[in-house]
Amino acid sequence: GTWRGQRMPDPAEPALSSLSHYLLAHYQKGTRPVRDWRTTTNVAIDLMVYAILSVDEKNQVLTTYIWYRQHWTDEFLRWDPEQFDNLTQISLPVESIWVPDILINEFVDVGKSPHVPYVYVGHHGEVQNLKPIQVMTACSLDIYNFPFDVQNCSLTFTSWLHHIRDINLSLWRQPELVKFDRSVFMNQGEWELLYVLSHFQEFSVKSSDSYAEMKFYVVIRRRPLFYTVSLLLPSIFLMVMDIVGFYLPPNSGERVSFKITLLLGYSVFLIIVSDTLPATAVGTPLIGVYFVVCMALLVISLTETILIVRLVHKQDLQPHVPEWVKRLLLERAPVLLCIRDRKKLSQSRTQSSDISRQAENNDSTAKLNHCSCEDPRESEMAGGARPAPASARHAEGSPLMHGVLQEITAIRQFLEKREEFRDVAREWLQVGYVLDVLLFRAYLVAVLAYSVTLGTLWSVWRDA
């Protein structure tokens, strides 16, 4: 009437209750469940990623929600199903049986994981421990390619106390099934699960006994659409407007105010997005370097504009353009830069010589008029009738005429001097125009080279 030193199950008692009492009556949960201590307990584990809760770049912490499963054989939890109404599985309290002390080495904080109080036990002693865990683990996060970054964080499962000869680890499913299993992953957050790699290894500290480790590498990728729209596109638009600002006339002060407004707007933009960029003590993301270089380009553009405006600004005591500047910027540079208005530049350069010739002609004409300043009708009447009064009137009118000629000479000198100043200002304006085209194209080449370099870096990284 007894089996294993116990009474046979009462047919009136429920099978679950009778089997539970049968299994736990003399069970000792403090020892490893093997009859021969040389037998190794093999624990098969499995992992499925349910959600990526947060990625803290500053503290280098990854918070995930996983479904974790353990499977091992307990030699003291076996029974004959025929003795218990063909019952092959039973759920037992997890506090009542032995469970392996398998922990995650990267744990940095206890997450808000729900407590599952039961485990499943099969009639051959197979124990299945299934539980969800919120895992807060340390992870070396590389933010250099933010927001196009891919993170690889490991979850290392190992027995904290038992050596590999006592507890060995294995993978429940095939590695290929674990790698691409996204059946339970919530795919609506910022991060996308690429795959989960698994790797088994033995670990020892200072030639001591080895421990079994099962590593799961969770590879995730950030979705960059939000950051592209909110960070990259506004910066690109501001840089495009800065390039368009070069088409404003260099001799107008509107370009300086326009560039200053762009620089101020970009500064406010950087203040707004400073909280969005991840901050770590290890390094700076590439997008941060991109923003700094864009700010430097805006400052260089403003400096170039101030230089050009200062160069073409009209002044009364502005010196003449040096000859080497004329040869370099007004003769050779337009040919090299393929400036279409080279004829206008050459025509405006010859205006000064034409104006000087015109001034000489006016001077000679004034002298002729001075010699023949009398009225022709008076000269005809002076043929012989009254020569004395005509000479007397000429003698009386000569001081007045001399004063008028002095005033006319002064006005002519003033006009010539003003025309000379205009000539000098026009030459400097031509120099400023050519120099502005030269600096604009150099600035455009620098911006394009910087954009191509940055895009190449991101592309190479994504391919890698």
From TrEMBL:
Keywords: Cell membrane, Disulfide bond, Glycoprotein, Ion channel, Ion transport, Ligand-gated ion channel, Membrane, Postsynaptic cell membrane, Receptor, Signal, Synapse, Transmembrane, Transmembrane helix, Transport
Cell cycle found in the keyword field: no
Predominant localisation class: membrane
Feature: compositional bias, Polar residues: 349-367
This protein's name: 5-hydroxytryptamine receptor 3A
GO cellular component, one term: postsynaptic membrane
Catalytically driven reaction(s): Mg(2+)(in) = Mg(2+)(out); Ca(2+)(in) = Ca(2+)(out); K(+)(in) = K(+)(out); Na(+)(in) = Na(+)(out)
Highest taxon listed in the record's lineage: Eukaryota
InterPro entries assigned to the protein according to its UniProt record, in alphabetical order: 5HT3_rcpt, 5HT3_rcpt_A, LGIC_TM_5-HT3, Neur_chan_lig-bd, Neur_chan_lig-bd_sf, Neur_channel, Neuro-gated_channel_TM_sf, Neuro_actylchol_rec
